[in-house]
Design goal:
28% helix, alpha+beta, flat
């Protein structure tokens, strides 16, 4: 799965990597952004 939300949006929606991994252990996720991350 590829997503391009701002940092933290997936978790706020309840579909962060940990939750997705429970449903689909084989899932690979990629997170991209066109702007700088606030995590730095």
């Amino acid at each position: 799965m590829v997503e391009s939300f701002r940092s933290g949006v997936m978790a706020r929606l309840g579909i962060d990597f940990a939750e997705l991994r429970k449903a689909r252990p084989e899932l690979i996720t990629i997170s991209i952004t066109g702007f700088a991350s606030n995590d730095v």
